[in-house]
Automatic annotation (TrEMBL):
Family: Belongs to the glycosyl hydrolase 20 family.
A GO CC term attached to the entry: membrane
Lineage: Bacteria, Pseudomonadati, Bacteroidota, Chitinophagia, Chitinophagales
Key words of the record: Glycosidase, Hydrolase, Signal
Entry protein name: beta-N-acetylhexosaminidase
Gene3D superfamilies named among the record's database cross-references: Chitobiase/beta-hexosaminidase domain 2-like (3.30.379.10), Glycosidases (3.20.20.80)
Length: 541
């Protein structure tokens, strides 16, 4: 080929590559414009300038550029930067929304403007998606202007580390997944019948006893690794590890909401401290099987010792986590143990409570008082809304739209986490050979098509009460981290777009195109597994 023709051909090719990059962003931005002009070139020793509030995010961006493209960059505070920086992270008050960012790439400079850490992190994620996932000497970013902000204020992912316990390194990796997808909240399910997974100073037996179970279901996992057999199973995160994880998330604009699940789901607690239960003989131990657990007592008894326990425990949790909200659980509390207990019945009478449901409410009201003493607000599963709680309380609705409407009418803000389609312990296929899961079919397309503000809520004029949504990852059937990855990907990516992008911008076919172009290469880059057959398994009409 003639030299000049080759040159023109290469130039055209580079243009199309740039154009492609711009329309592959996930979640799809509010507005993306391609600008005339040359792409911005980044090479080693490129300068990243930053305003004070983005100091840590500049360091984060440096690490990412190094890992992703092999670019060694220099970070400089904007006050000290002498020449024009290649990338500039700028604080700007003219940005109208908290998590909004504006990214401009032109005239040899990429400027990202935001007014919060979360905003700048979101902009950085978009920039990283525009860069190649390989080591290169010169990285090009197309001339463009991207204007972007999320549809919902609350965009969460949950992880149950109780049913199965995952190392600190994986929790951080999971937080990286959230960051990439522009989520802003990590809901950390830390206690349940099967274990207590956070170090406690006030009640040490929660760890020495409550963090461990004798065995777990054996033979359930047909695709389990050969080593799969547990005798003593468990563990917990130390306070130092928890602090490290909180700091890691904070740099990435992610708030961690810890969940201490009461007054049901408390088998681990009452194994460690039988005196807190209605049955102090307590012969069962920390649960090693799953389910609502009606067979074995798992509720707290309403006694002075229990309320003292709750006050100390929730204070300790409140002191450790900067989140303004603490999750108190409140779900699936079996009433039969309270019905059978004479002292509990006496308590119900003395306090003029109507029944056991009112007692459950009483527990949540007490804990909300303890949290208020520490300036924290309550978030809990929708069962909590029976109580006299102030309207700063957030209701996490795992049931149907009617429950969300009820909560909104009571004045509460609501987060939508309906089992169908936001429980990722459900199957992604109907293939009988698929890895073991529960509760039926919940494929990618159904997840993608779900709108967290369903028509019934819109019609009632309650859309404003919906703060956002969250997918829940219950890990009864996810014993190893590759299984978690397999269950969450690509469904997590679909949720991220539903929570970020406007409904008018959503389109499943286009989502699949962008998923394949941008996000599946990321799963590979992370060395994560994912469910590959998603196109074979459509939503049921
Ligand atoms: C219900 S919904 C639970 C969890 C289980 C899950 C399994 C809710 C708040 N609690 O304890 O892990 O179902 O799908």
């Amino acid at each position: 080929m003639h030299k000049q023709t080759l040159f023109v051909f290469l130039l055209l090719l580079s243009k199309t590559i740039n154009a492609q990059q711009l329309n592959t962003i996930v979640p799809v931005p509010v507005k993306t414009e391609q600008l005339n002009g040359q792409p911005v070139k980044l090479t080693t020793n490129a300068v990243i300038s930053f305003d004070d509030i983005f100091t840590q995010q500049a360091a984060y961006l440096q690490q990412q550029l190094q890992q992703q493209c092999g670019l060694q960059t220099i970070a400089q505070n904007r006050k000290d930067a002498k020449s024009k920086a290649s990338i500039s992270l700028q604080f700007s008050n003219s940005i109208s929304k908290d998590e909004m960012y504006v990214l401009e790439s032109q005239q040899q400079q990429i400027i990202i403007k935001a007014k919060t850490v979360r905003g700048i992190v979101n902009g950085i994620q978009t920039l990283l998606q525009l860069l190649p996932l390989k080591q290169t000497a010169v990285v090009e970013v197309p001339a463009c202007r991207i204007f972007d902000y999320p549809r919902f204020a609350y965009r969460g992912m949950h992880l149950d580390v109780v049913r199965h316990f995952f190392p600190v390194s994986y929790v951080k990796k999971y937080i990286d997944y959230l960051t990439f997808h522009k989520f802003n909240t990590f809901h950390w399910h830390l206690t349940d019948d099967q274990g207590w997974r956070i170090e406690m100073l006030s009640y040490p037996k929660l760890n020495s006893v409550g963090s461990w179970r004798d065995s777990t279901l054996i033979g359930h996992f047909k695709d389990a690794p050969a080593r799969y057999e547990h005798k003593r199973y468990g563990g917990y995160y130390t306070r130092a590890e928890v602090k490290e994880i909180i700091a890691y998330a904070a740099v990435r604009g992610i708030t961690i909401i810890p969940e201490i699940d009461i007054p049901g789901h408390s088998r681990a607690t009452i194994t460690a401290y039988p005196e807190l239960s209605t049955d102090p003989t307590n012969k069962w131990g920390v649960a090693a099987t799953w389910g609502m657990y009606n067979r074995v007592n798992n509720v707290l008894a309403p006694t002075p010792a229990t309320f003292e326990f709750l006050r100390k425990v929730f204070h300790e949790i409140a002191d450790l986590f900067p989140s303004p909200y603490i999750h108190v659980g409140g779900d699936e509390c079996s009433k039969m143990w309270w019905k059978q207990s004479a002292t509990t019945q006496q308590f119900i009478k003395q306090n003029k409570l109507k029944d056991e449901v009112a007692l459950q409410t009483y527990f949540i009201e007490q804990v909300s008082k303890y949290l208020k003493e520490k300036n924290k607000k309550v978030i809990g599963w929708h069962e909590i809304m029976e109580g006299k709680l102030d309207t700063s309380t957030i209701v996490m609705n795992w049931a149907n739209d009617a429950k969300a409407i009820e909560a909104a009418n009571k004045g509460f803000n609501v987060i939508m986490t309906p089992g169908k389609p936001y429980y990722f312990d459900h199957y992604q296929s109907k293939d009988p050979k698929d890895s073991l899961a529960i509760h039926g079919y919940n494929p990618l397309e159904a997840v993608y098509n779900y709108d967290p503000v369903p028509a019934s809520i819109k019609q009632k004029g309650l859309a404003d009460k919906i703060l956002g949504g969250q997918a829940n990852v219950w890990t009864e059937y996810m014993e190893w981290t590759t299984k978690v990855d397999y269950m969450v990907f690509p469904r997590m990516t679909a949720v991220s777009e539903s929570l970020w992008s406007m409904p008018s911008q959503k389109n499943y076919t286009d989502f699949l195109r962008r998923l394949k172009a941008t996000v599946i290469p990321r799963y590979q880059y992370w060395n994560s597994s994912w469910f590959k057959d998603f196109e074979k398994w459509p939503a049921e009409k």
